[in-house]
From TrEMBL:
It comes from the Bacteria. It comes from Dictyobacter alpinus. Gene3D superfamilies: NAD(P)-binding Rossmann-like Domain. InterPro entries: NAD(P)-bd_dom_sf (IPR036291), P5C_Rdtase_cat_N (IPR028939), STEAP_metalloreductase (IPR051267). Transmembrane segments: none annotated. Residues 3-91 form the Pyrroline-5-carboxylate reductase catalytic N-terminal domain. This is Pyrroline-5-carboxylate reductase catalytic N-terminal domain-containing protein. One of its GO terms (cellular component) is plasma membrane. Coiled coil: none annotated.
């Protein structure tokens, strides 16, 4: 199993620390070139490696830790997301009208057609994630897509708790 974190801001770096604590290889990428990320990645640990977005997207499981609207640019980077698991750590304060009345997670999932999709890591601040919390909550509209990602996150970072999704327009 291979992992990547797309977005290397405070959430992306906190998650990279979680991988490093478990000595698990993870690729990190952002809109900045890998050379710009490399010093921070090395400082986190030897299992955290900065690569280009294209290289990072070769991972089986991709944690999306970018500002909400940037998910569209990431989604355009591959012609097919089949076989990938996307863990969406984004949040938005956009009005429901801007999301066509959909939950934010549905908007992001639509951009990654074919991927297994899980919403997670978005409900805690970077400081809490970096402090190594015991349990992380995940949600998913399609329960059959969730167990592999939850198993991966138990092994990699935190204990995972699956929550059923709500049907309201806010997520």
């Amino acid at each position: 199993m291979s992992y990547a974190i797309i977005g290397f801001g405070s959430i992306g770096q906190a998650l990279a620390h979680a991988f490093a604590r478990k000595s698990i290889d993870v690729t990190v990428a952002s809109r900045r070139p890998p050379e710009a990320l490399a010093p921070q990645a090395r400082a986190i640990g030897p299992t955290v490696v900065a690569r280009s977005l294209r290289d990072a997207l070769e991972a089986d499981t991709i944690i999306l830790a970018v500002p909400f609207w940037e998910h569209r640019e990431v989604a355009k980077a591959l012609p097919s997301w089949e076989g990938k698991t996307i863990i969406d750590a984004t949040n938005t304060n956009a009005p429901v009208e801007d999301l066509d009345g959909q939950p934010s997670s549905a908007v992001v999932a639509k951009a990654f057609t074919g991927a297994r999709f899980v919403k997670g890591f978005n409900h805690l601040s970077a400081a809490v994630l970096a402090a190594d919390p015991n349990v992380i909550c995940f949600t998913n509209r399609k329960l059959q897509a969730s167990p592999p990602a939850l198993h991966e996150q138990r092994a990699v970072t935190y204990d995972a708790l699956l929550l059923r999704t709500r049907t309201s327009a806010h997520s």
